[in-house]
Design a protein that fits this description.
The protein has eleven helices and no strands. By secondary structure, the protein is an all-alpha fold. Helix 3 runs antiparallel to helix 4, helix 5 packs across helix 6 (116-133) and helix 6 runs antiparallel to helix 9 (153-168).
């Protein structure tokens, strides 16, 4: 079966390879910027590329549990590395905005307070910090069950990341809405079947009444 082949192959691939491969796109984006291949506004384009790649990694991380639960594909060993690389790209996205785009410290704070899409993005980044800080074996052992509860913040972070992308877009654009739909769909898959049955029964009773 193809599932068995994927699982066998995954067991042979070391998790550290995610870090090596994961950082390559950042180098490519930087090279594109330095060589003038990111258009008329290279800084804005670099911000966008780093942020969008972070969202892709975030979605990839969200896919791991449904893949195991519904298809039997076990990629759990890579989830922590994917999470760390997501934080790295969000941090680089923020760094480009801080250092290359805004530059003025007072303006940075003003933008965070006055621009809703920046506020949403900053809240998501702040929520990621404790997750990145505890993405190590020591923290997993030390926190135990609390570690799992803490890392459920990923769900809120994913929604905020997709919302940030939708708000950044000028007007109604299809691509950000697709990302939002994918995130919402992946989050919906995590709703326990019992809750879905209760919600369905409540809806039917409401219609009957």
């Amino acid at each position: 079966m193809i599932t068995d082949t994927i699982n066998i192959t995954a067991r042979r691939i070391p998790a550290w390879l995610i870090y090596v491969l994961g950082i390559l796109p950042a180098g490519w984006f930087l090279y594109q910027g330095l060589t003038g291949n990111l258009g008329a506004e290279p800084i804005k384009s670099l911000e966008h590329e780093l942020g969008e790649f972070a969202l892709k990694l975030l979605i990839l991380g969200l896919c791991i549990t449904p893949l195991r639960k519904h298809l039997g594909v076990n990629l759990i060993k890579f989830r922590r590395a994917i999470g760390v690389m997501t934080f790295v790209y969000v941090f680089l996205h923020l760094l480009v905005w801080l250092v290359l785009d805004v530059q003025i410290v007072s303006q940075i704070w003003a933008d965070i307070l006055k621009r809703p899409y920046i506020t949403v993005g900053m809240v998501g980044f702040v929520l990621m910090i404790p997750l990145a800080a505890t993405s190590n074996t020591f923290s997993v052992r030390k926190l135990g069950v609390r570690w799992r509860k803490l890392h459920k913040l990923t769900y809120g972070i994913a929604f905020l990341g997709a919302l940030h992308f939708v708000m950044v877009a000028k007007g109604i654009q299809l691509e950000p809405l697709i990302y939002m739909a994918v995130v919402i769909g992946l989050l919906a898959l995590r709703i326990p079947n019992k809750s879905l049955k209760i919600a369905g029964r409540f809806t039917r009773e409401s219609v009957d009444n």
